[in-house]
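User: Structure please.
Assistant: Input sequence and predicted structure:
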Amino acid sequence: MSFRANLAVGAAGIFLCLATAGAGQACSLSLQPSQDSWTIRYDPFAQDATQNQFDVAVVNQGDVRCSGTIRVDLSGEEYGLRMAGAPGRIPYALIDERDGADLTPRAGLNARRINAQPVALEPGERSLLRFTFVTAPGEVPAQGLHVQNARIALEDGSGVIVGERPLTLALDVVPAAVLGLKGEFQRSNGVARIDLGELTPGPKPLSAALYVLSTGGYRVSVGSANGGRLRMGATDWYVDYELEVGGHRMDLASPDGFEVVSRRARADDYPLSVRIGDVAGRRAGEYTDVITFTVAAL
């Protein structure tokens, strides 16, 4: 009997006043992020990279030269992206692409650097800063938004914060699922083949299992090319049989399946077994059927 598994899956500005250069000379910088929420959309089964780049425009709107050092802090929140109701946090990194500086607030605030490159602009001058936001989920995360609330700020040479802005970092894990077959089987032309041996009536556990990995709930659908019958070649000789997937008895006379409801990531195994029907009076030969499994994220 042959089994085939298919996949179906799934600026506001920041007005920062820095130190004045003298009476009547105001230092004024405007930071304009391309977006207030830096979000990475992620399908763990379709991509390896979990990073994106985001820009912040800086404009000197004052009358004097202005400079400040970028700081990122978490205002007391624990480091790591987190989804409400889910355990654990996902690590990430923030990189200033000007010099590769690591701005990740792992200890609640990014580490200070003696040679940190400041933002320095002449009056009316404009500059574009680019940051890389990269995450490292490790195991398959649950679908949904995993977020970190942070603040991006500028501080003057004495360490005084002269302006700040809230920023949301987020990993948006999309609904997605994949399935496959594990155990004893052979593969030919991309199709898994399980040998049932000599057909005898009754139950027969198989040394193979269907597995499903998902970011949440999913539905497994099962279809039989012969409507629940093993067929000898192109003849009209058949042997009826039933299929169980992890205890779910499938009605192979028509498309069937089952659903798993979950708000967390899943890694499930479903042992396969069959029940062979009457073989009396059947012609000797090889009887086969093609089972198609598909999975769709909910």
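Residues 1-24 have pLDDT under 50 and may be disordered.
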